[in-house]
Amino acid sequence: MSHIIESGKSDFVKVNVSNSHNDAVAFEVKFAKDLTVAQLKSKLEILTGGSAGTMKVQVFKGENCLATMDNNDAQLGYYVNCDGLRLHVIDSFATFSFDSAPVEKFELSMDQYDQRTDSVRSYLKQNRMGKYNEEERQQAEEKKRQQAEEILKRAELCVLGGRCEVAVPGNPTRRGTIRYNGQLEGKTGHFIGIEYDEPLGKNNGSFGGKAYFSCAPNYGGFVSPLSVTVGDFPPEEFNIDDEI
């Protein structure tokens, strides 16, 4: 059995919770680290509608499974000691089926489901979590709106033939000439095509088999307008002295 060891002094931990019946839905919850796994499962039973006696809880970081909480007497802090991880609930009882006898499917209308007080949706509403936190939702929408405006503003400055400097996290700052301004087929968003001064790019002006501009191999690249600063950037001189 593996467990997670991270540094942290808080008595509580914030995690995202998802379940096997709806992988697309995940919401943030704060739990005390001294909860036993059995106590945690009882709380997750309320959140996910699963059965505490049959559920399996896995710890994820991104898409990587770090551990399975297989000791009901262990404390949550033994497995999770930092914020931001995800607890994924697999309800083995709910997913079990009997081949010998057909089971009638029980369904609720949206109105009937909204009226229930023991559902995940009701819990989220009562605690103003996820999409039911109006303030967080408005803040997220405002952030997206501001980013969209900034992208449009920066894109308008990217005139074809203009000089620029490109700064992408994890890559060296590069200089080049703007060769394309628009969308890429098969990609969401707005992109600026750059012909770099040095072979520090990824293509020759093509993307997905379609040519948007032409340049030498590894001299071309497509980046977000937010990564482009337009200005009078002359080509840099690279002097390489022979070493003895």
CATH architecture of the largest domain: Roll
Please name the fourth-level CATH homologous superfamily of the largest domain.
Phosphatidylinositol 3-kinase Catalytic Subunit, Chain A, domain 1
Instruction: List unreliable stretches of 5+ residues.
Output: 1-8, 94-106
Backbone structural class: alpha+beta
Number of helices: 5
CATH structural fold name of the largest domain: Ubiquitin-like (UB roll)
Strand ordering within the main sheet: 2-1-5-3-4
Q: Can you tell me the CATH class of the largest domain?
A: Alpha Beta
- Supply Rg: 26 Å
| Shape label | elongated
Strand content range: 25-35%
Count of strand segments: 12
Q: In whole angstroms, how far apart are the ends? A: 55 Å
Overall domain count: 2
For the biggest sheet, the summary is: 5 strands, mixed
Describe this structure in words.
This protein is an alpha+beta fold and 244 residues long. The protein has two domains: 12-132, Phosphatidylinositol 3-kinase Catalytic Subunit, Chain A, domain 1 (Ubiquitin-like (UB roll)); 157-230, SH3 type barrels (Roll), CATH 2.30.30. The protein has helices at residues 37-48, 76-79, 110-115, 120-126, 134-157, and strands at residues 12-19, 22-32, 55-61, 64-68, 86-91, 163-166, 174-182, 191-196, 206-207, 210-211, 220-223, 228-230. The protein has a five-stranded mixed beta sheet. Strand 6 (163-166) and strand 7 (174-182) form a beta hairpin. The radius of gyration is 26 Å and the shape is elongated. The model is unreliable at 1-8 and 94-106 (pLDDT under 50).
Topology (elements, then pairings):
Layout: E1 12-19, E2 22-32, H1 37-48, E3 55-61, E4 64-68, H2 76-79, E5 86-91, H3 110-115, H4 120-126, H5 134-157, E6 163-166, E7 174-182, E8 191-196, E9 206-207, E10 210-211, E11 220-223, E12 228-230
Parallel strand pairs: 1-5
Antiparallel strand pairs: 1-2, 3-4, 3-5, 6-7, 6-12, 7-8, 8-11, 9-10
